[in-house]
Amino acid sequence: MKFNTVEEMIAYRNTIVKNLAENVCVVSFVKKDGAIRVMTCTSNPALMPVYEKKTDKVRSQNSYIISAFDLNKMAYRSFLVENILDVTILSEDEVHQMQNSGNFGH
Questions:
Q1: Largest CA distance in the chain
Q2: How many domains does the chain have?
């Protein structure tokens, strides 16, 4: 996705970050190698396993990157805001269906 201004990109990023914090989303984006990736992800702690921090290292915030927990790979992944192709918010019913069918973590 192309943005006219940095402010427009940051506003879009903030919207995606808010959606991820409150929901499970399916995010399609272009990876660095040019491949298209579709990821079911969230940043809602209630939907993620407890994270055990292994170091005291603190990563600085980058306005061009979004990090989220991939519910299929059960690991954190990140992507560039400008490489997002589509974001779909899953309904609670869709999330429950995925949880019940064992689709998370596989």
A1: 42
A2: 1
